[in-house]
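Structure representation.

___
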Amino acid sequence: MDDSRQSIGADSNRIFVIPSDTPSRIPRPPKSLLRCAGAAIAEFQMIRPGDRVLVGLSGGKDSFALLYVLLHLQRHAPLDFALAAATVDPHSPGFDPTPLQTLIPNLGIPYFYAAQPILDQAQTSMNGDSYCAFCARLKRGVLYAQARQHNYNVLALAHHLDDIAESFFLSLFHGGRIQTMKAHYLNDAGDVRVIRPLVYARERQTAAFATSAQLPLITENCPACFSAPTQRRYFKELLAREEAAHPNLFRSLVTALRPIIAVGFDKVKLK
């Protein structure tokens, strides 16, 4: 079976292969979202000829939006790259990846699935981290492993401008560091480039696209994450209040944060 027409995944006990003989209809992302992604991809040289890009797909609105943006660009933009998606199942209550295992292979791209008991591991191995930070780090490690196993040199993550801003204030207020998520960088092992094509897009754009396209979103109701208000939620609400009073807030934040999200890009430019 041709690699572009199958899905290969693994859980704790089995390997499964899902054929994809009839690609599903691919909803077109709105022009505003495509412009934001296109600007970031061009500015930070995120996708290069011959790249093999693996999208980290949780099934939420942001990762779905990123997947469809890249599918659209693969088909319509002068970018020659391969595309696949991978999901990490953290074994948390409420997370059911079944819809993804049915839908994604029918988009005509490879789909990989890996299960990792992150919730159980967090009980003994967090070492002072928040659960969300611990989970994100472990998920990224699993995605690196999937990229290596299936020969993908680029990992695409779906963090948007709201995430970037919230992370900046979290780091500043609680970590004493002026930093946030990077737009494009090389991982510590030096074998996978990490890109965030939605760094200039707003969360409300991905939410609107998910609603208009009627995407089959997966809502993860994880008690370890959502049983109490989080620091990230606090800054999300703070930024919302400030934007209501100052509508150009995020335009200013883009200008201020651009040098910070570009940290590490000088290294990948040399590759």
User: Anything to note?
Assistant: The CA atoms of residues 172 and 178 lie 6 Å apart. The radius of gyration is 18 Å. The first strand starts at residue 6 and ends at 10.
